[in-house]
Design brief:
single chain; alpha/beta; 24 helices; 34% helix; binds thiamine diphosphate; binds magnesium ion
Length: 829
C-alpha cells in the first residue's frame, strides 16, 4: 500500500517503501492530482500489470548488460567462460553514468508506444550515453537491419561490443551512425530545441526528450523551456521532456538536483510546464512509478491535443504540457564502491567506473560481478538472441524508435514548391539607375514560398523579420505565439509559422530539428550575432559531413542563413553590431558543405535564394542588406551572373581587353563603392584600363581541388589576370580573400579592402571610410599599385585624400553624409 508522503506547493507526493540507501521512489504532479502507483485510472491504455513491469525490468537489464559490454568487452560476450584480461578492451572509453537512466526511459517508452500505437522518437540529451541508444536499437532489431554484420547472435554481440569507441568502429555518442538519433548530444544543450523543432507541423509526432541535469545548466537548454509559448497543440506534435536528475555532471553536483524540490517544481511550473516527479532507486518501485506517470502524462498530452484540435481549448492560453522529473542515481545498478570510494550515485560514475580492469584483479572481478548481476541467461538464449518474450516488448516496424523515419529526415523530405522567382524580378533599364531594398523583394517571394508550403517551410529570426524587410510574409501567416495577444500586437497568432524569439540558440536549434526531420527553413539574423550559434553550426556541419558517409542516411535540406542587418549598415547600433566574421567561420567547414553568397542586388538575391532553397546538405550563407541599393542586373543577367558566381561587368569597365588594373568587389556595399571608384578613375584617368569584376559566390575564388565551386587557374587568371594589380573591395575581413586566393599565381597582387575592426554609430559613408573601403581609398590604392601611375598621379591622389577629409568633415558638421557620397546612381545610367 502506498502512502502520501507530504503535501507541499500544491504537490502530492506518493511514497514507496524506501530502499536502504536512498530517497524513496515518489511521484507527484504539481497540479496536485495523485498520479503514480495509485490512480492512473484515466489512462487510455490502462496501467501496466506487474507481469508487464517484470518484463520491462528484464528488458532494461538486457540494455544495461549490452551497455556495459560495449564499454568493456572485446570478447566473451555471453560470459561463457570466466572473464579474463584478454576479453577487455585496452582503452576503456565511454560513459556509464547516464546510461542506465536512458535505458530505463527507453524501455518504458517502448511499452507506451506499443500500448498506444504512438509515433515517437527518442532524443538522448546526454548523448554521451551512446551505449544506451545503441543497445536499445540493437534490442529492437533495427541495429542488425541497418548493420547486418551485427547480427542477433553471439558473434553479433561480440562485434557490437567491440566496435563501440574502438578505432574503425562507432563513436561513443548518439552520433549519426546511431539509428533513431537526431541529437548527437556531444556538445550539450540542444536536445529540447531539437525535439521542439522536430514536432513543428507534425501533429502526430511525439518527441521524448531526455535532458541531462548538467545539460540543463547550459544557456541553450535553459531557453528551450519556453517551447510552450510557441508550440501549437492543434497543428504541431508534442514534446515530452524528461529531466534526468541523476544529480551529477562530470565532477560536480548539478544545480537543479540540489535545489529544494519545491523550488525546482516552481521553476518548471513557472516555465509553463506541469511537472511530474519520479524519484528513487528501487528498480521495481521505479518501474511502477515511471510507467504510471508516463501513462498519465501521455493521457494529458492526448487531452491537450484533442481539446486544441476540437476547438475546446481557448486560444491565447498556452497549453500546460506535462514533463517528467526523473531522479535516479548516476551509474544506477553499477559498482557501488570501487577502491573504497562510493561510485554509484556520485559523479564518479560518469565515465568508466572500473578503470583498470586489465591490470587490477579486483576490478576484473567487480566487472564480472557487475555483468553477471544482470543475469544474461534470463535475457538471451544460448546463441545470444534476445528471448522472444523480451523481443516482443519492442514496438514493430517504423514504430520502433530506432526506425522512425522522422529520425532520418531525408526519407520524408520533399522538394519545396517554389514560386517562379523570375516573376518577382526588379525591372532594370540600365545598371545602377534605380534602387531597391533587396530583402523587400525577397520577402515577397518568401511570402509565396510559405503560402505554397504550409507544412514544410518555416522562417526563423530573432525578432526582426519585419526589420529585415521580409514583412510581406505576414500577408499569409503570422508569428507563432501561444501566449495572450493584445490588440496592440502585430501579426501574432497561435498558428503562425514565422518563428521569432530573442534567442539565436533557440532559433538555430528549432531550425535544425525541423531540417533533421525532413523539412526546410531559413534563418534571417543580424550578421554580428550569428556568431552566437557558431558552435551549433560546427555540430550541424559534423552531422551533415557524417551522413554524407552513411549510406542509409538520406540527404537533408540545407541549413540556410540570411545575414541581413550587416556590418556596413548598423546606423542605429554601431560597433557592437558590426562583425562580418560569421562567413569566415562557415568557410572553415568542409568544402562539401560550406557555401557563401554575396548577391550585389535584388535580382541576384532572388536567384541565389531560389538556388539555396533547392539545395541539400549544405550550409548556405547569404549576405544581403535591407537598405535600398542600386539595381544593376536584369533578371536574365542576374541568373547568368549568379550561375557563374563571378563576372566581369563590361558596363563598369573601361576596357574589354587586357586591363591595367582589376577592380573587384564582393558584397553590395563594397560593390557600390568599387563602382564609384571605377567612375572616379574613368573621370580622372580616362586612359587607365580598368576591368570591373563582381564576385557573388565566394567559393569560386578557391581552386577546384579545394572546393567544388572553385575556378581552375586558367579561368581565374583570365578574370583576375596573372600579373595585374587587383584592388578588391570585400564585405568581410580582408584576410578571408587572401585565404581563398593564396595559391593563385597573382595572389601577391591582391590588395583587399574590407572590415578592419573600425566601427561606431555613424553614417554609412563614414563607416566605409573608417575601414578604408570607400571609393577614394580604393581609387588611391589603384594609383599606388599601377606602375604607370604612382608618383605621376600624386596630385590626383592628394585630391582623393582631401575628398575623404571633406566627406568626413561634412558628417561632423551636418550629421549625415554629403548627398554626393550617399548611394547615388551609376553615372552612366
Ligand atoms: C557544452 C558542453 N560543455 C561541456 C561538455 C563536457 N561534458 C561532457 S558530459 C558532461 C556532464 C554532463 O552532465 P549531465 O548533463 O548531467 O549528463 P549525465 O549526468 O546524464 O551524464 C560535461 C560537462 C559538453 N559535452 N558539452
Ligand atoms: Mg547528470
Amino acid at each position: 500500500m502506498l502512502e502520501v508522503l507530504e503535501w507541499s506547493a500544491g504537490c502530492q507526493f506518493i511514497a514507496f517503501p524506501s530502499s536502504e540507501r536512498s530517497a524513496p521512489a515518489r511521484c507527484c504532479s504539481a497540479a496536485g492530482s495523485i498520479v503514480a502507483g495509485v490512480t492512473p485510472t484515466d489512462t487510455a491504455a490502462g496501467p501496466a500489470t506487474d507481469e508487464e513491469l517484470a518484463l520491462v525490468d528484464r528488458y532494461w537489464r538486457a540494455a544495461n548488460y549490452l551497455s556495459v559490454g560495449q564499454i568493456y568487452l572485446l570478447d566473451n560476450p555471453l560470459l561463457e567462460v570466466p572473464l579474463a584480461p584478454e576479453h577487455i578492451k585496452p582503452r576503456l572509453l565511454g560513459h556509464w553514468g547516464t546510461t542506465p537512466g536512458l535505458n530505463f526511459m527507453y524501455a518504458h517508452c517502448n511499452r507506451a508506444i506499443k500500448a498506444r500505437d504512438l509515433d515517437a522518437i527518442f532524443l538522448a540529451g546526454p548523448g554521451h550515453g551512446g551505449p544506451a541508444v545503441v543497445s536499445n536499437t540493437y534490442l529492437e532489431g533495427v541495429y542488425s537491419e541497418t548493420y547486418p554484420h551485427i547480427g542477433q547472435n553471439r558473434e553479433g554481440l561480440r562485434r557490437l561490443f567491440r566496435q563501440f569507441s574502438f578505432p574503425g568502429g562507432i563513436p561513443s555518442h548518439a552520433a549519426p551512425q546511431t539509428p533513431g538519433s537526431i541529437n548527437e548530444g556531444g556538445e550539450l544543450g540542444y536536445s529540447l530545441m531539437h525535439a521542439t523543432g522536430a514536432v513543428f507541423d507534425d501533429p502526430d509526432l511525439l518527441a521524448v526528450c531526455t535532458i541531462g541535469d548538467g545539460e540543463a545548466e547550459t544557456g541553450p537548454l535553459a531557453t528551450s523551456w519556453h517551447a510552450p509559448a510557441f508550440l501549437d497543440p492543434a497543428r504541431d506534435g508534442a514534446v515530452l521532456p524528461i529531466l534526468h536528475l541523476n544529480g551529477y555532471k562530470i565532477a560536480n553536483p548539478t544545480v537543479l538536483a540540489r535545489l529544494p524540490e519545491e523550488q525546482l517544481l516552481s521553476l518548471i511550473t513557472g516555465w509553463g510546464w506541469e511537472p511530474f516527479v519520479v524519484s528513487g532507486d528501487d528498480p521495481m518501485l521505479m518501474h511502477r512509478a515511471f510507467s504510471d506517470v508516463l501513462d498519465t502524462v501521455l493521457d494529458r498530452i492526448a487531452t491537450i491535443q484533442q481539446q486544441a484540435r476540437s476547438g475546446e481549448h481557448p486560444k491565447g492560453e498556452p497549453a500546460r504540457w506535462p514533463m517528467i522529473v526523473f531522479r535516479s542515481p548516476k551509474g544506477w545498478t553499477g559498482p557501488k564502491v570501487v577502491d573504497g570510494q562510493q561510485v554509484e550515485g556520485t559523479f564518479r560514475a560518469h565515465q568508466v567506473p572500473l578503470s583498470e580492469v586489465r591490470t587490477n584483479e579486483e576490478h576484473l572481478r567487480q566487472l564480472e560481478d557487475w555483468l553477471r548481476s544482470y543475469r544474461a541467461e534470463e535475457l538471451f538464449d544460448a546463441e545470444g538472441r534476445l528471448l522472444p518474450e523480451l523481443a516482443a516488448l519492442a514496438p514493430e516496424g517504423d514504430r520502433r524508435m530506432g526506425a522512425n523515419p522522422h529520425t532520418n529526415g531525408g526519407l520524408l523530405l520533399k522538394d519545396l514548391e517554389l514560386p517562379e522567382f523570375r516573376d518577382y524580378a526588379v525591372h532594370v533599364d540600365a545598371p545602377g539607375s534605380t534602387m531597391t531594398p533587396a530583402t523587400t523583394v525577397l520577402g515577397e517571394w518568401l511570402r509565396d514560398v510559405m503560402q505554397l508550403n504550409p507544412t514544410r517551410f518555416r522562417l526563423f529570426g530573432p525578432d526582426e523579420t519585419a526589420s529585415n524587410r521580409l514583412q510581406a510574409v505576414f500577408g499569409v501567416t503570422n508569428r507563432a505565439w501561444q501566449e495572450p495577444i493584445l490588440d496592440t500586437d502585430d501579426h501574432l497568432a497561435p498558428d503562425g509559422r514565422v518563428m521569432e524569439v530573442l534567442s539565436e540558440h533557440l532559433l538555430q536549434g528549432w531550425l535544425e530539428g525541423y531540417l533533421l526531420t525532413g523539412r526546410h527553413g531559413l534563418l534571417s539574423t543580424y550578421e554580428a550575432f550569428a556568431h552566437i550559434v557558431d558552435s551549433m553550426v560546427n555540430q550541424h556541419a559534423k552531422w551533415l559531413h557524417d551522413i554524407n558517409g552513411i549510406p542509409w542516411r538520406r540527404d537533408l535540406a540545407s541549413l540556410n542563413y540570411l545575414l541581413s542587418s550587416h556590418v556596413w549598415r548598423q546606423d542605429h547600433n554601431g560597433s557592437s553590431h558590426q562583425d562580418p566574421g560569421f562567413i569566415d567561420h562557415v568557410i572553415n567547414k568542409k568544402a562539401e558543405l560550406a557555401r557563401v553568397y554575396l548577391p550585389p542586388d535584388a535580382n541576384c538575391l532572388l536567384s541565389v535564394a531560389d538556388h539555396v532553397l533547392r539545395s541539400r546538405q549544405y550550409i548556405n550563407v547569404i549576405v544581403a542588406g535591407k537598405q535600398p541599393q542600386l539595381d544593376y542586373l536584369t533578371m536574365d543577367e542576374a541568373i547568368a551572373h549568379c550561375t557563374r558566381g563571378v563576372g566581369i561587368w563590361d558596363w563598369a569597365s573601361t576596357t574589354d581587353g587586357e586591363p591595367d588594373v582589376v577592380l573587384a568587389a564582393a558584397g553590395e556595399i563594397p560593390t557600390m563603392e568599387a563602382l564609384a571608384a571605377a567612375d572616379l578613375l574613368r573621370q580622372h584617368l580616362p586612359d587607365l584600363k580598368v576591368r570591373f569584376v563582381n564576385v557573388v559566390d565566394l567559393m569560386r575564388l578557391q581552386s577546384p581541388d579545394e572546393h567544388p565551386h572553385g575556378m581552375d587557374d586558367r579561368d581565374f587568371d583570365a578574370v583576375f589576370t596573372a600579373d595585374k594589380p587587383v584592388v578588391f573591395a570585400f564585405h568581410g575581413y580582408p584576410t578571408l580573400i587572401h585565404r581563398l586566393t593564396y595559391k593563385r599565381q597573382n595572389h601577391s597582387q591582391f590588395h583587399v579592402h574590407g572590415y578592419i575592426e573600425e566601427g561606431t554609430t555613424t553614417t554609412p559613408f563614414d563607416m566605409v571610410m573608417m575601414n578604408r573601403l570607400d571609393r577614394f581609398s580604393l581609387a588611391m590604392h589603384v594609383i599606388d599599385r599601377v606602375p604607370a601611375l604612382g608618383s605621376s598621379q600624386a596630385s590626383l591622389r592628394q585630391r582623393f585624400m582631401d575628398a575623404r577629409l571633406a566627406a568626413r568633415r561634412y558628417t561632423r558638421v551636418h550629421g549625415e553624409d554629403d548627398a554626393a557620397m550617399a548611394s547615388g546612381t551609376w553615372p552612366r545610367a
